[in-house]
Each structure stands twice: as structure tokens, then as C-alpha cells.
């Protein structure tokens, strides 16, 4: 019966869109007293709204009974408040939206995960039905059409057709940026290449550099140049200017021929390969390793692997840094709505038929997590207002998607996201070694982002409870990308909290004893890393006779579509 249920569910509702909503309705019907209380609350709100409607129609002053959230820019134009017709359209939409969302989140007798999934899918439907998304119910769009004599509608149609041709709602014009020309322009050389990655070694900007190299393991879900955008945002340039010797991964964009590439391969031919390349090039016994997002998860697994694989004094990484990284996937953030047995089976079967997961599919899923800001904003401004999307390097990078090999990604989803095995000692075996995070004793610097919905900071903190050795934890303002791409500017644009963390700490305990600081955490990181980075020596060239240049940075793999 279980197999029959799973088969039917996987065919009819593979991503679990309908089932949570049905379960929520049945749960409310099974709790009539709570349902009556909710209807009483809804009736109270509707009476307030009716009184507000009467006052507005009579021309009397009346404050909005329901106000948009501070981060909801859909109704920011004064027309939605000053004109009674549009004010009432906004208020009735918000009233039913808020009450429906609150009811789903408060569903009695339903597991919290099911409540969140039901609320997620219903929220996306309600967001799609907002009056701002349609020409005849959006007064701003109609005003622009009149003011431009219809030119905004003509431009909007052109934008719509361009998006249709691209198969995506574009967030920026792809012609505004070109990798290697106005993005990823830091000079360097590809000094190593295999079937999975190119290793880029950057040319120094200082006469002397710290002896110990910095090795950066980037996520293979997107391309590496998020750390080397335009010059003023480039973390790579910042590190070079600080006298660091930097190596970075540029991952191959896999196709169907790489379907059998496993996570073992990514660890040995990827993470271990760049560590060994940097050690060989510099002649140093150890490196400082940095991992970002899934690259950080892979680095964490490598550290557990290396501490089992090598004698204690021969582990090739001396200290390490993690950016927005999960090792405990118990509560992985909003992406949780896509994580259950049926969804994983559907995604895995889809990958099995093609040999890979298309990056556009993953990008679409992440955009659904913030559909108002990442989908409907661009629909409204592009299609209804006829505006050309402004050039934005981060959004261009976000659209420059990559594919995931079937074997690696299906294993990753099931063993980490679904089964959460990494936090259990010796539950996972990778590249011939059982993994135990508790064996990691090297000093660790961890960075998380306060508004990160992909790797929530409360969950990223959990690495502190699993690894041993000294640890420093940093919480940056902003989200998954801008919390990390956080250059030093005057006056400071962001803030952060930084302090030592202990294995017995909870995230709340750490936060309560840590003071807020204005500015970028990059300076705090340099204060931590430089004492470990070795003596200053003559800067090494980007390539040498033993490791000749295979291509100038940014290399060839990053240009593959």
C-alpha cells in the first residue's frame, strides 16, 4: 500500500503542491472549535474593512486597517492609498491574503513542515493573483501607458517576447555583462585542469605575500565569479591587496556524459585536487581552505575525510573558513518545501532520464522561494511598465546557471538533505573513509548571513556544535549573497556580529554575548587569518615552468553554457 501511495503521489502531485493544502483543509474540518474562532477573527477584520470602505466612499478620512509589510514594495506608489478605489482593492486583497496565510501557519493537528509547505504553495498562488500583476488592476501601469502614449505597453510587449524567447523572466539584460570583459577580470592563470575543474591562480598585487596560500572551494551550483564581480566588489582583489596568495576552483558545467560523476569524485578530483595543486605550486605543507555554500559543505566533508585519511600532523589544511554553509540539514530553510521522499524521487527520476539537473530548474525553484521580489517584480516592471531591467552584476551571475550530474546530486539530496547523515559520526562513507565531523580539530572561521533563506544562520551555527578546535563565528547583515559580497566602504553599508564560539553554545547564547559592529566582516576575517598566514615572502608569479599557464583567467570552463 505504501508503494502504491508513493507511486500515485509521485505521478499526480510529485512536488507536494496539492497534498499539504488538502491536509490543511481536513485538519481544520476536524477542529470545528478552532475553525469557529478563526472565522470570528476574520469577521472582525472584515467589519473593520467594511467600515473603512464606507468612510473612503464617503470621502472621510480613514487609516488603512491592514498595511503592507515593510519589505512589500508592490503597493508603495501613493495611488494605492490616495484613491479610494485602488485603496480598497489593495485592502481587500491584503485582508484575505493575511488571514489565509495565518490560518495555514496555525493549522491545528498538522505537522509544522506540512503547515509550512501548505503556506508556501498558497502564498505563491496569492502572490500570482495580486492586483499589481495585471494591467487593468494596476493603476501605475495604466498611468504610465497614458503618459507615454502607449509606448510603455509596446516596450512591455517586447520585453515579454524577449523573456518568452529566453524561456525565463529575465532579471537583467544578459548583454550588459560579459565574463572576462567586465566581470571576472582579475588577472591570473589556469594552472591545472581535469574533467571536473580548472584551478585559477591569481597574479599578486603586492610585492610580498603571505607564504601560506588561500584555497577557495566555490559552489558548483553557480559559477565561481560571484567572488570576482566588478573590481570594487571583488573578494579576490581584496584578498590579493591584503597580501594573500589565492587559488580558486572553476567547476566544469557537466553534461549528460558526466552523469556518473559522484560526490567521491568531487571530493577527490575537486577539493583534494586544488589543495594538492596549491601545495605543490607554493611548496607549502599546508593551506588555508575556504568553502562557500555547497562548496563549504564539500570542504567540511573533506576536512572530516582528511582527518581520517592522513596522520594528524599531515592534514594538508591548517585552518579553514566557511561561508553560509550547512552541515546539519534538519531545518535547511525555505528549500525544505521541496525536500521529502516524493519530491526527491521526482527530481532524481528527472535527472536519471537526462543525466543531469538543469540549472534553470534549480534557479526557478529558488526564485519561487521569494516570488514577489524575484519573479513578479520583474513581470510588473518589464511587461506592464515597459522598463528595461537595470544592469546588475549579481543578478547576471544568478542567471548564469550550471547543471548538476545525476549521480552526485541525487546522492547529495538524499544523504544530506533528506537523511541528514553528515552530522552522525561514521554514517557516511566518502572516497573510502567514514566521515566524523568531531575529528576536525583545525581552527575554523564561520560566516553566516542574517537574512539568508537558503542557509539560515541558526542552522549554519550548528557546525560549531559538531567540530572541535577553536572557532570564531560571524553573522553578517543581508542575505546569502550580499552578506558575503560585502566590500569595505565608507560610510559602512552593513553591520556584523563576531565572537568566539564554543561547542556547547547555542546560537542564541552566542548572539546575546556578541556586540554589533558597523562595517564589513572582511576586516575581522583578515585580523583572524593573517596571524595564521605565514611570513611575508616575495610574491609568486601566477604561473611557472612546473605549472605553466593553460589559459588566462577566468579560464575556459566558466564560459561554458
TrEMBL record:
A matching Pfam family: PhaC_N
An individual GO BP term: poly-hydroxybutyrate biosynthetic process
Region of interest: Disordered: 542-561
Domain Poly-beta-hydroxybutyrate polymerase N-terminal: 72-239
Keyword annotations from UniProtKB, A to Z: Acyltransferase, Hydrolase, Transferase
PANTHER family: POLY(3-HYDROXYALKANOATE) POLYMERASE SUBUNIT PHAC, POLY-3-HYDROXYBUTYRATE SYNTHASE
Protein name, UniProt field: Alpha/beta hydrolase
Species for this entry: Parazoarcus communis
Amino acid at each position: 500500500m505504501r508503494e502504491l501511495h508513493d507511486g500515485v503521489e509521485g505521478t499526480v502531485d510529485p512536488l507536494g503542491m496539492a497534498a499539504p493544502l488538502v491536509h490543511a483543509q481536513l485538519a481544520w474540518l476536524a477542529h470545528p472549535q478552532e475553525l469557529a474562532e478563526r472565522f470570528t477573527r476574520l469577521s472582525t477584520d472584515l467589519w473593520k474593512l467594511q467600515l473603512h470602505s464606507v468612510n473612503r466612499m464617503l470621502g472621510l478620512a480613514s487609516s488603512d486597517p491592514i498595511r503592507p509589510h515593510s519589505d512589500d514594495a508592490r503597493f508603495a506608489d501613493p495611488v494605492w492609498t490616495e484613491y479610494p478605489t485602488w485603496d480598497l482593492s489593495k485592502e481587500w486583497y491584503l485582508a484575505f491574503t493575511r488571514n489565509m496565510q495565518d490560518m495555514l501557519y496555525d493549522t491545528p493537528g498538522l505537522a509544522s513542515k506540512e503547515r509550512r509547505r501548505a503556506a508556501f504553495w498558497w502564498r505563491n498562488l496569492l502572490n500570482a493573483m495580486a492586483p499589481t500583476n495585471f494591467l487593468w488592476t494596476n493603476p501605475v501601469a495604466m498611468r504610465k501607458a497614458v503618459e507615454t502614449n502607449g509606448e510603455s505597453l509596446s516596450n512591455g510587449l517586447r520585453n515579454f517576447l524577449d523573456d518568452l524567447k529566453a524561456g525565463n523572466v529575465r532579471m537583467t539584460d544578459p548583454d550588459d555583462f560579459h565574463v572576462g570583459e567586465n566581470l571576472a577580470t582579475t588577472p591570473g592563470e589556469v594552472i591545472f585542469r581535469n574533467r571536473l575543474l580548472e584551478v585559477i591562480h591569481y597574479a599578486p598585487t603586492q610585492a610580498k605575500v603571505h607564504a601560506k596560500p588561500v584555497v577557495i572551494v566555490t559552489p558548483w551550483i553557480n559559477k565561481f565569479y560571484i567572488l570576482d564581480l566588478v573590481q570594487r566588489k571583488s573578494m579576490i582583489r581584496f584578498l590579493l591587496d591584503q597580501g594573500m596568495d589565492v587559488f580558486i576552483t572553476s567547476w566544469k558545467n557537466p553534461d549528460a556524459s558526466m552523469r556518473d560523476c559522484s560526490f567521491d569524485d568531487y571530493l577527490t578530483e575537486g577539493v583534494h585536487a586544488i589543495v594538492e595543486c596549491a601545495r605543490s605550486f607554493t611548496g607549502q605543507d599546508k593551506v588555508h581552505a575556504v568553502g562557500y555554500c555547497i562548496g563549504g559543505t564539500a570542504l567540511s566533508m573533506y576536512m572530516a575525510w582528511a582527518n581520517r585519511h592522513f596522520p594528524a600532523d599531515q592534514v594538508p589544511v591548517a585552518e579553514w573558513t566557511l561561508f553560509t554553509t550547512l552541515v546539519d540539514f534538519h531545518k535547511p530553510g525555505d528549500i525544505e518545501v521541496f525536500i521529502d521522499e516524493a519530491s526527491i524521487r521526482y527530481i532524481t527520476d528527472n535527472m536519471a532520464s537526462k543525466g543531469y539537473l538543469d540549472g534553470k530548474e534549480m534557479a526557478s525553484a529558488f526564485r519561487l522561494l521569494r516570488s514577489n521580489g524575484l519573479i513578479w517584480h520583474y513581470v510588473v516592471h518589464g511587461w506592464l511598465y515597459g522598463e528595461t531591467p537595470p544592469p546588475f552584476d549579481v543578478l547576471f551571475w544568478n542567471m548564469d546557471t550550471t547543471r548538476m550530474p545525476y549521480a552526485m546530486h541525487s546522492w547529495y539530496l538524499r544523504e544530506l538533505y533528506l537523511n541528514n547523515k553528515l552530522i552522525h559520526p561514521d554514517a557516511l562513507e566518502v572516497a573510502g573513509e567514514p566521515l566524523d565531523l568531531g575529528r576536525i580539530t583545525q581552527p575554523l572561521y564561520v560566516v553566516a548571513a542574517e537574512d539568508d533563506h537558503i542557509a539560515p544562520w541558526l542552522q549554519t551555527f550548528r557546525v560549531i556544535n559538531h567540530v572541535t578546535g577553536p572557532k570564531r563565528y560571524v553573522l553578517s547583515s543581508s542575505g546569502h549573497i550580499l552578506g558575503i559580497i560585502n566590500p569595505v566602504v565608507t560610510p559602512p553599508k552593513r553591520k556584523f556580529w563576531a565572537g568566539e564560539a564554543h561547542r556547547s553554545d547555542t546560537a542564541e547564547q552566542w548572539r546575546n554575548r556578541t556586540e554589533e559592529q558597523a562595517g564589513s566582516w572582511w576586516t575581522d576575517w583578515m585580523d583572524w587569518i593573517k596571524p595564521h598566514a605565514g611570513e611575508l615572502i616575495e610574491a609568486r608569479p601566477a604561473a611557472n615552468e612546473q605549472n605553466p599557464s593553460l589559459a588566462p583567467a577566468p579560464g575556459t570552463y566558466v564560459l561554458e553554457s
